[in-house]
Amino acid sequence: MKNLTLVALSLICLLNVAAIFEKFNYLEPDQFKQWLETDKPMIIVDIQDKDAFAAHHFAGSIETNAFPVKTDAEKKQIDPAVAAYKASGNDVVVICPRGGGGAKRCYSYLKSQGVPEDKLTILKNGVDKWPYRDMLVTQ
Fold it and tell me: Which residues lie closer than 8 Å to 85 by C-beta, 6 or more apart?
């Protein structure tokens, strides 16, 4: 019984270590600005909560209100972006308040739903540190 418990604990530790080393593709603000200015076909997945989205977001964003993307219900709110990718095959940019944990969980969820990693990026530092504030839509 002790050996089984040790094996189970070792497996859990290995899975947690693997999650720490997972890599993510980040999109620099200047590059994203260029994509916006040239009307590059893309899917912008905004996971901010409802109030933050109303305060500032990018035109054409899919509003998911999925932040912090921890529960199954929050992950399901990202499904319209999965459908948009499957319909178009366009690059997907994840927008989060700070580009941290919520963005990474959204990225991982999108990847698990069949969006290839070479099509996925996270806006570096998120919308809160977006340097071109005049490009944001406010309500």
Answer: 43, 92, 110, 114, 115, 119
